[in-house]
Amino acid sequence: MVTTTQRVLKDLRTKRKGQPVFVVGHVSERKGQEATFELFNERLALVKFSDGVTLGYDPLELLLPTEIDEKGVGFFEIRQCKQCDQFFPLTKEEASVGEEPTTCPNCAS
After folding, report:
1. Which residues in the chain come in under a pLDDT of 50?
2. Phi/psi class of residue 5: alpha, beta or left (left: φ > 0; alpha: ψ in -120 to 50)?
3. How many whole angstroms from its chain centre is CA 80?
4. Alpha-carbon distances of 51 from 33, 34, 40, 55, rounded to whole Å
5. Exposed e or buried b for every residue in 84-99, given b needs 16+ CB within 10 A?
6. Please, which residues bridge with residue 55 across strands?
7. What does the alpha-carbon distance between residue 4 and residue 70 come to, in Å, rounded to a whole number?
8. What pTM, to 2 d.p., does this model score?
9. For residue 81, which phi and psi values (nearest 5 degrees)?
10. What are the φ and ψ backbone dihedral angles of 92, each rounded to 5 degrees?
């Protein structure tokens, strides 16, 4: 789940198989899709898509879900930064406030 210090898969100390992720990576036909983390292969995180395809991504290209329900299904609140155009996930708190952030944490600081 997204926290103020953990927004991408790379930020997680413990990466669990089945962790839901949102792909913003380099393969254009997979960009914007949800997948599940499988394992690390050298420096790449292998993720599996719902159609069974497994691809490798830089862990910085895999956004964490805002919430995960009791069945392990991720719910994503993804926004695009108004300054740098990068996608970023909202924390549960950011998603529930009246005015959501319009810039990513990097641009906001």
Report:
1. none
2. alpha
3. 13
4. 11, 11, 20, 12
5. eeebbbbbeebbeeee
6. 47
7. 22
8. 0.91
9. -65, 130
10. -60, -40
For residue 10, how many C-alpha atoms fall within 13 Å in the half-sphere facing its CB? 9
Output Rg (C-alpha) for the chain, integer angstroms: 13
Beta bridge partners of 22: 34, 63
Give 6-45 as a 3 state SS string.
Answer: CCEHHHCCCCCCCCEEEECCCCHHHCCCEEEEEEEECCEE
Mind listing the pLDDT tens digit for each residue in 34-62?
999 999 987 899 999 999 999 999 999 99
Residue type for position 16 = R
